[in-house]
Design brief:
Blueprint lengths: L29 E5 L4 H4 L8 H8 L4 E5 L13 H17 L6 E6 L1 H8 L3 E5 L10 H4 L8 E5 L7 H13 L3 E3 L8 H15 L1
Parallel strand pairs: 1-2, 1-5, 2-3, 4-5, 4-6
Length: 203
């Protein structure tokens, strides 16, 4: 049963190619899980489109799973105006960029719920701090390609001690892969665009 206000991710939106052939569906294999950026950067004006959603759609991300953690700045809720607006933007962006599978905008989950929902996905934990197990995305390109990838991007204030310890423990046990994109600290929207572009190339 379709949740009220939700749009089916498999909705066929793309027009045929100029020669009449149908477009191939964009069977993306990666999603990104992110805390919501500060509202003024996310969409500078209420009437302005969100580059965050548009970039995800253009870069063939399958889904955006919003993350509700201790230091989240913005916490949208199902039934609120923000989620409805972002889902409309996903439809508009899909038509514009020619993808035939709609970007799925999901309501926020906390960290344990998010990890449980990822199931058998390979989970990439994007962490700017150096660590003994930190990997680069390029190093993962030489391994077997996973069926699905979830990229986990934390809030602007960083993970709480409890959240960090949970992820570090999972990384030590091989449950998540700790990834450092750059030696610098990236804003949420920058990290999301960077990891989406790299994963699209690698997968």
């Amino acid at each position: 049963t379709q949740t009220p206000g939700r749009i089916p991710p498999c909705l066929d939106l793309a027009p045929p190619l100029p020669d009449g052939r149908p477009r191939q569906p964009c069977r993306s294999r990666h999603q990104r899980v992110a805390a919501v950026p500060d509202g003024e950067r996310f969409s500078p004006r209420p009437e302005a489109p969100s580059p965050f959603v548009e970039q995800a759609s253009q870069l063939n991300v399958a889904a955006i799973q919003w993350l509700d953690v201790a230091r989240s700045v913005v916490k949208p809720r199902e039934g609120g105006g923000k989620l409805a607006k972002w889902r409309r933007l996903a439809v508009e962006s899909a038509k514009q960029c020619g993808r035939s599978w709609l970007l799925d905008i999901r309501e926020p989950l906390d960290l344990p719920q998010t990890l449980a929902a990822a199931g058998g996905d390979r989970i990439l934990w994007l962490e700017p701090r150096e660590g003994p197990a930190a990997r680069s995305l390029a190093s993962l390109a030489h391994e077997d390609r996973p069926a699905e990838v979830t990229a986990l991007i934390g809030p602007e204030g960083g993970w709480s001690t409890r959240e960090f310890d949970l992820l570090e423990g999972l990384a030590d046990a091989g449950g998540v892969v700790r990834v450092r994109l750059t030696p610098t600290v990236l804003r949420i929207e920058t990290a999301c665009a960077a990891v989406a572009a790299l994963l699209t190339s690698l997968l």
